[in-house]
Amino acid sequence: MNQRVLTILLSAFVVAAGCAYLVFRVVGNRLGVTHQAATTRVVAAAGDIKLGTILNAGNLTTIEIAGPLPKGAILKSENAIGRGVISDLYQGEPIVDSRLAAVGSGGGLAATIRQGMRACAVKVDEVVGVAGFVTPGMRVDVLMSGNPPGQPNSSDGPQVKTLLQNIEVLSAGTDIQKDAEGKPQQVQVVNLLVSPEQAEVLSLASNQVHLQLVLRNPLDTKIVQIPGTAMSTLFANNKPVAPKLITVGGSKIATKTEPRFYSVEVFNGLQRSEQKFTAPGGE
Q1: Separation in Å, CA 234 to CA 157, 237, 238, 262
Q2: CA distances (Å), 38 to each of 26, 30, 35, 45, 64, in order?
Q3: Whole-angstrom distance, CA of residue 179 vs CA of residue 196
Q4: pLDDT at 183 over 70
Q5: Contact between 99 and 80 (Cβ < 8 Å)
Q6: Backbone angles phi, psi at 279, to 5 degrees
Q7: Is this prediction's pTM over 0.70?
Q8: 115: three-class secondary structure by DSSP
Q9: pLDDT tens digit string along 74-100?
Q10: Of 56, 192, 217, 241, which sees the most CB atoms within 10 A?
């Protein structure tokens, strides 16, 4: 290649590289100035903070956020100190007003109760329902089982009925307060967030029948009509079918009941077959 052409190409490359570097520096500085101007210092959690904690200066720190702020973000520590936490906060998380109890309401479970609602305790054991598996914020249904009032020896036996549906859990398994040693207190109680009317229903039912909790999907908010179930209906299919009576010439004659069949599936390796058998006595 001609020495002169090569020199021109190298010079052009050096000039282009220099121009690109200058443009990069200028644009980068302007973006940096814009970025710094858009950041805002907000109050955040200095560590993991549990529900019910009353905030103090040691629980708080500040961080810088670029762009729009979270709704209700707290900018000054004095606006958060002394207020109770109504849901768990995690280290470095910006503290917003909706995650704290109202000023003067204190901490603990009471601070998590919304206006017009009540916290009702339901006694459970380690096995019943989903005790030990529910956490604050989950949704449950409340079932009651027992003998109806005035029917202690009912022929239908014990009955179960859905008492309340889609109820929010405030606390479960362990008490949200700690003892003098800082250890959680083990109590077999689930606190539910209910209306005053629902609180009366729960209080009355807990003294008369056995209550059980069933966990539900929090996205499933549909309230369904459930008639309830009696013990006798669980064995209804085992009752013999009474023969039908037909009237002939003024007298009733019992017709013969057709025999019932039951089927059995038989698996032999990968082969599957089905065999039918007549029930003994036609039952």
Answers
A1: 10, 8, 9, 18
A2: 19, 13, 5, 22, 10
A3: 30
A4: no
A5: no
A6: -65, 140
A7: no
A8: coil
A9: 999 999 998 888 888 899 999 999 888
A10: 192
**Contact, 58 vs 46, CB < 8 A?**
yes
Tokens 């560590």: give the residue.
47
What is the SS3 assignment for 98?
helix
Helix (H, G, I), strand (E, B) or coil at 269: coil
Tokens representing residue 150 in the block: 């005035």
Q: What's the confidence (pLDDT) of residue 129?
A: 45
Nearest to 232 by CA among 128, 142, 160, 150: 160
The closest of 189, 177, 186 to 106, measured between CA atoms, is 177
Of 127, 145, 151, the C-alpha closest to 231 is 145
The separation between CA 46 and the C-alpha centre of its own chain, rounded to angstroms, equals: 27
pLDDT tens, 120-177? 888 776 554 455 567 778 888 998 888 877 666 666 778 888 999 999 988 776 545 5
